[in-house]
User: Fold these one by one.
Assistant:
Number 1:
Amino acid sequence: MSLYEKYSALQLTHHAGGILEVVMGASQSANRKLSTADHNLHRELAEIWRTIDDDPSVRVAIIRGEGKGFSAGGDLSLVEDMANDFAVRTRVWKEAKDLVYNVINCSKPIVSAMHGPAVGAGLVAGLLADISIASKSARIIDGHTRLGVAAGDHAAIVWPLLCGMAKAKYYLMLCESVSGEEAERIGLVSLCCEDHELRDKAFEIATKLANGSQSAIRWTKYALNNWLRMAGPTFDASLALEFMGFSGPDIQEGVASLRAKRPPQF
């Protein structure tokens, strides 16, 4: 069985030089929709990094979105299932934890290419990637407080380290969007580029990484990511608080307001 046979929500393409391109929500791209993390995509986003780590043919992974943006966050049906079903909530909690730690612990370097809205589970991989690239059209949003739950996922483990505590609190507590240019200015992403340059820039950087000393690059990643591992208890607490919120009253209003496309009334 192919290592990648079980993946259907992700489009996976092997390129020359050991580069694997991971595209989220490929089945939705034909309609130019935003990729939303439903049950399948959320699970696959958590698992793919272990598979990449086990694949000797891959030297670098690129993750990007199709259509109107990078990722649109959690599918509302999944969110409602999490709010209403304890078994789903505990399963997705483990997937959310695995997603963060699997990206951090994947020995292969990861390059993200973000355009348009970048929200939810996709954003986890986008900002935890070793080299993160945002186009000028990118709108990075951690939407948790808008939904009525704590900013869990990846936020507590990496935002304060990337852009400082003051900026992290501002954007995470107020649920404000960050443009690609602003994200580069405050250090939230590695680079910002024009929209039409995004994919080419991602491949340019991935090719440099693939052509470099694999042991040196992978060990450098491992050492630097110890900063993130030290923040593990902070992340674990934030994720627990987020998922506790899925059993509270505010999540119902958050989902209802999103469906009605109106401001929430908490």
Note: The radius of gyration is 17 Å.
Number 2:
Amino acid sequence: MTPLFDLPLQRIRANGIELAARIGGEGPPMLLLHGHPQTHVIWHRMWPTLTRHRTCVAVDLRGYGDSAKPPASADHAAHSKRVMARDMAELMRGLGHEHYDVLAHDRGARVAHRLALDHAGSVNRMMLLDIAPTLDMYEGTNRAFAQAYFHWFWLIQPAPLPETMIERDGEFYIRSIMGGRPGGLAHFADQALAEYARCAQLPGWATGICEDYRASATIDLEHDRAGRKSGERVRAPLRVLWGERGAVGRNFDVIGLWSAVADSVSGKALPSAHYLPEEVPDAVLAEAAGFFGWEG
């Protein structure tokens, strides 16, 4: 299969904006979503195996990478997970995929969670990497979590404070955030780091990431609380994986919290910190093969 970096970057219109994606492979469709402060490139080490078994759509979230970067809105609705999930639903539908699997990390996993709620009929099975539900993480924040995830509380400060500081040196921001986790920058390929750094220099990138987090601390919580009150749950089979050296598993009951909002949940910790697709790609692939149903 063609390596991820060798595939052309496609720009596809969905939900009124342009999304950047790389598409490859064969077999049933799978949507791949990345986290902060990265792009779809996080899947490059897993790509050769994934694309032997699935037609993979690796896409940059709005506000990230080479996807469109809508302006900020007063209520942050333009970057709500509901809108970002609609991006993905319309993207996949436009590519001819009415039903698909989802594999998502970090911020992309929060989009995937909302996708599985708002577009439940489209998601066959879903694997989420290193998150607990957003509402529970905010409501259960303690000092240890706040210190490890300080950016959750810094990026939501009113504009233009965080944007201005990030824009002074986007590559420094990338290297500081990613390098500040256990293991530092040693986990990341030079080509991937260069791509993350390039995208951090793009106009609107700082606004996009800040608005993503501001939405999660405001309008997304409103949607989550309303949904829980109405009884909404993830109906698709859900597998959750987290890093045994990361902050999520240390501070939250990952399986318990997901079991409270989803019908069928399984999962485990892997020997990594936060960036599972790049730190332990083979372990994630082994879990994916068992959960999504392929051999080798």
Note: The chain has one domain: 4-292.
Number 3:
Amino acid sequence: MKLTKERIVDAGMATFAETGYHGLSMRQVAERLGAHAGSLYYHVHSKDELLALMADRVCRHAYDAGSTALAALPPEATWREEIEVQAAELRRSIQQHPGGALLLADSPGALSTGGLSLMERLLKTLLDAGVPVEHSGIAADTLLSHVTGFVLQEQTEPQTPTVTAETYAALRARFPLVMEQMPRLGQNEKFQRSIKLLCTAFETLMKNDDSRA
């Protein structure tokens, strides 16, 4: 089958899911495609370019999914709901790509159209909602970083330590807030609450800006 940039990105995504950032090599991608490594460079010039293309694909998927979700919102939807669906679709898109969160976190910074599209739309949502211009960039970046970090934890192999009743009692006595008062939530509810908390923080910026007017 003829080599194309899309096929190389497909193979790169599959290889990355197995090896991670540092283990990925153009040779491994070529082997997965049954091709010589040198033939890949005609389409993709370096590992960094491949990583950028892979990250861009995840972002483009997230942007398209977000567009569909936003279009499905009722006309009276609030800016909070618009933020929530964008965050939810980004999380879902990253989850659909094994190692996707690690890819976005570890890949070199690049001006990808997919990533810029996500940021542009999020900035517009925040600015239209009334977040001051001087805070909107940090607000958008914080939200995107939070979603990536959240999924990174989800995609990391969980390690559940064995805790005896005696150990648990000692920990509860020493760290009562952590052991007793923090709610034990499922990942979906924890994610939804975390986005709502961020939206509340963004709303505070709007109120502070109004008070100075």
Note: The chain has a mean pLDDT of 88.
